[in-house]
Structures are given as C-alpha cells and as structure tokens.
Amino acid sequence: MMNAITPVVTEDSIALGLPIDVSIENVVKAFDDTPALHGVSLDVKAGELVALLGPSGSGKTTLLRILAGLDAPTSGRVLFDGSDALGLPVQDRNIGFVFQHYALFRHMTVFDNIAFGLTVRPRASRPPKAEIRKRVLHLLDLVQLGGLEKRYPAQLSGGQRQRVALARALAIEPRVLLLDEPFGALDAQVRKDLRRWLREIHDRTGHTTFFVTHDQEEALELADRVVVMSKGRIEQVGTADEIYDQPASPFVFSFIGESSLLPVTLVDGQIQLDGRPVGLAAPQGQSGTATLGFRPHDIAIVQDGGPAISGQIIAERRHGARRRLELHVGAEAHRAEIDVPADQGRQIGSQVAFRPNHWRIFPA
Amino acid sequence: MAMSDAAFTRERLPGAAAVHFRPVTIERRRVRVGLIVVSLVFLAVFLLLPVVAVFVEALRGGPKAFMDAIFEPDAAAAIRLTLLVAAIAVPCNLVFGLAASWAIAKFDFRGKSLLNTLIDLPFSVSPVISGLIYILMFGSHSLLGPILKSYGIQVIFAVPGIVLATIFVTFPFVARELIPLMEEQGQGDEEAALSLGASGWQVFFRVTLPNVKWALLYGVLLCNARAMGEFGAVSVVSGHIRGLTNTMPLHVEILYNEYNFAAAFAVASLLALLALFTLIVKSVLEWRYADEIAATRRH
User: Fold this and answer.
1) Smallest Cβ distance to A103: which of B188, B202, B295?
2) A341, A299 in Cβ contact below 8 A?
3) Spatial separation of the C-alpha atoms in residues B259 and B248, rounded to whole Å
4) ipTM of the complex
5) Among A86, A222, A264, B222, which is most buried by a count of CB atoms within 10 Å?
6) Where is the ABC transmembrane type-1 domain (chain B) (predicted)?
7) Which helix or strand (DSSP H or E) is residue A40 part of?
8) Which B positions 138-177 lie with beta carbon below 8 A of chain A?
9) 175-194 in B: which are within 8 Å (CB) of A?
10) Per-domain residue ranges of chain A
11) What is the pLDDT of residues A116-169, one digit of tens each?
C-alpha cells in the first residue's frame, strides 16, 4: 500500500500565499548559559527546500524551533521576506510545523486534526464549514489518505500519521514549512517512499521548506541545499555535490560519506606522516600541520615499496562488494579504513601500504 | 508434515515427551489457585463482610425504621450539609488541581519540586492535624479569628471551617491523577496547536483538557468520595452542633455513641452506597469508553 505514493494531480491546487525568502542573521541561543547556537546566519530563497543536517546536539532543531517561534533566540534576527519575524508570536507567524512525533491530537479524528488550524481562526477570517470540509478532503487526497478522515490517530500507521501531520500543517496555508526529523520514526522502506513523495509535494506546492535530519542520505537526496551543522555552528552550506566533493572542514568530510582522517605535516610541497613523505603532493603554498582526509574506497594499494601510508591491519570485515580493512597507522596508531577487493583477504596483524587516489588537506 | 516431524522427533528422543514445557512467566497451577484464594479470602473478610454488615444492620429494624432514621431532621440536615460541602470543595479542587498540574507538568520554574511535594502534604499529614491547623489560624485565640469575627464571619465551628478543612484534605486527588498523565503527554500537542494559530484558551479547551478528561473525571470522583466521607479534619473544626455543623460521618458517630445503632447504620449505609456508586460509575466509564481512554495515552 505504501509502495506507490504519488500525489494525485488535481485541477485546483492548494491555495497558497506566495513563497517567501527567509533570512537568519547572526542568531545566538543560550540555554542556561550553555550556547546551543553560536551566531548562525543563513539566507534561503523563496521556494527552496533546505536540509539542516547534523549530529544530535548540533543545534539544528533549536534553529528550526526559533524559526517557528517555539523558542526565542538570545540575540540575532530572523526576517521573513525582509520584515522582522521574531516580533510575531508563534500563532501569527503562519508557519506549518511538522513535529518529530507528529503531535497529532489523539482525541480528534483525522478530519478534525487537519481542520484544526482553520476552525480556531477568529470568526471573521474563518472559512465557512463547507469550505473547510472541501479543503480538508482535498488535502487528504494530496497526502494519499482519502477515505480515512473518520479514523483516530491511534488507528493509523506511522507513515499515515506522518502524512496527516503534513496535511494539518499545510491546511493553514503556511508561508514557511518546517519539518523536524520528518521520517525519523519510520522504518527504512517507508522512509524512502515518503522522501520521494515529500519532494514531489514540495515541487507542487512550492513552499519555502526547512527540514531537520541527521540522515545524510536523506539530506543529500531531498534538499536543494544542505546546511551542515555541528556544535551550534554552520559548517557548510551547499548543494549535495558541493558538500560531498568540496567539504569545507574535516567535520563535513567525516560526517558526509565514509572517510578516514590522519594528522599530517606539510613540508617542502610534500605531505608527511611521522616525518616520512607518503608520496602525495601538498597543496601549493601550504605548510605546517594539517589533516589529511580520504575515502576508504578511493585508494590504491602500493606494493613497489615506494612512498606510501602504511599501517597494521587490526580487523577486516565484508563491506558490500568489497572487503574493508581497519588499520593502525603511524607511530601513534591512528585509526584508518581502506577497502580492498573482496577476494584479497589478508592476515590480521600484517602490514599494508596504500596511497589515496583523491584526498583533501584541511590546514590545522 | 509438521505433525510427522514432531512424531519423528519424539521417537528419536523418547525423553523429550516427559518434559513439560510452560511459559516462564506463568506460575504452576497450585500457585495460581493459592494466590487467588488468598486474595479472595482477604477481600471477603476485610472489605465485603463489613459492607454487607453495614447494610444488614441498617435494615435490621425494617424499611420503616431505616426511612425514619434518614428523614429525621438532624440526619436530613447532616445530609444537606455534606452535599453542600462537597458541592463547594470539589469544584474548588477541580480548578486548583488542574492549575497546579498544568504548572508542574508544562512549565519549569524555581520551587517546582517544592510545590510537587506540598501537593502531597494532605496525604502525609494526619487529618486531625489538618483540622487543628484551621483552629490555630481562625480560632478565637488566633490572629485572624477575632478580626473576621468583628466582620461577622465565623470560620471555626461553622460551615466555612468545614469547607476549608475538606478542601485541604481532598486537594491532592485531582492533581495526583493529572500530573503523571500530563507529564507523560508533554507539550508537543500544545506546541502543535499554537503553531496552527490557536490562542491560549483554545489550546486549553480544545487540546489540553480533552487530553486529560478521563483522568480528571477519576480525580473528581475520588475527590468527591473523600469530601463526603472525611471525618477527622471536619470533626476538629465542626463543633458537632446538631442540625447545623454535623456532616454525615459526624452524625453517624453521634448516633453510634448514643447506642442508636439502627439509625447510625442507616446513615452509614448511605455513605457506603455513595462509595459503591462512585466505583460503579468509574467502572462503567472505563468499560464504555475503553477505546477512547486507550487513545488518549501516547500513541
């Protein structure tokens, strides 16, 4: 049932306010004197789908809640289409927020959940009953839940609840859509379907959308731009290609994709490990200590005794089509991982030498 | 196929048939029967028998004597007073309990754990002490008593004192039902409602209150049962003035001390009926709305 989720294309699309630009300027948030956000700035264009990606504790959810008005920043500004949004209470900010655990009203039917944002409006701006009904049923079709309007949340599967939560957020015609770990509580197959489906909904409705995730695959696949966060700071903002191919920091390099990082020194245009050259050229004009980063699958084994990185194999395991070796490298036994063909099993404790085909140097 | 496999296995392992498997969490039959018998005997001796005794004693003199005992003016006054006290104390504690639970479950503030502890105070303090507190506060030798008296307000040995003592004793019932549930439910629903544009009162009446309505109803039922049955605290502040400040439990005691057993048990049987009624209402509600109650737990 969940395998073929595609939006129903209908004539009357969901009525929308025009999508808006969102500017975050130097936002700081301190909880009991421990900063959760250290001066975060970000500009998002109208209609963009942006992922806030980072490990737990990176401040991504805090940033999302500040945008929604559920938390207030200690300092900084948030602008919706150039005008201050922080002065608006959460009710007047007109954002659609989808909570991690959906926060569906358990004593209300699916219909009443979706209609809630419309029925709480003051009488003057509340649509007539028939209009509300029409809009709710239309949204139910949009999220592929037509016919379930009389169910209670407890009678729905996780994926269905998620879609009700999205329909409820869309019902108020939000200016910005915010999703907190939207697929966090779902199993892998449902996640993949909903991910594609969310992208299609976004393309149809055109909201400026932020979603928080700790799943890099989700972020890279779904978002126009990915904002990588760590310890309350933005590490890098870019497209999936930029984040993957030109990581701005060792953190981004290690957080996105598989990677090994080794401390090295740059001497005379050479990269050295423990004072010995490893056969890689240092970037022009750089010297001193640095961090060398490479991908485990992107290396070549060196057997001619030439300059290379060598390490002792401390473990090996099957990794997809390849075999992954875990190494202790250098005098200080830094951990590194490399991949070799699956049929090239090696003795634990033996030495292996390799050079990365592609690598990055991050100055210390 | 499976059958023949099993037979084959049994043939090969003749010892296996002798082993008697049972789920590890199910006790042996003897143990189960023993536990059930012990529980039933205990319930019968300590709960059922006394309740039956109350009704038997109440009806010993026949229905006429029973009716006379209840409609005798002092008894009728006691019943009216008990209903009045409950009618004031229960709504007060409904509001106070809801406010306290709301504050404790949904907000972080200094002194939160102190407030949480204070709510339990009436449970841990002897009811007699609860009554004495009000004598000390409002009695004729207290600071407040004479001042209030000069305005013509009598608290002790009058209805206001009885109401105050009852509120004090029954305060925890509503709050204790609500706090764990509200803490478990968290603030997610409220945040969602706010983000959808609901005002504070709309959030309260359309989201928070419906989420806790069953727990609130239980709390009110228990609170009411205790408010009508409270003896100790009320006894201290009431003054036992017949027809004026006697509640039903106090009236039962007076009748009993006068060796008027039939009348005492007649009034007591009314209190017992109230308790049974409360239990029945609670059970009926649980049975009737089981689905909805289950749905208000976290899904």
Assistant:
1) B188
2) no
3) 17
4) 0.81
5) A264
6) 79-282
7) strand A34-44
8) none
9) 188-189, 191-194
10) 22-252, 261-363
11) 999 999 988 899 999 999 999 999 988 889 899 999 999 999 889 999 999 999
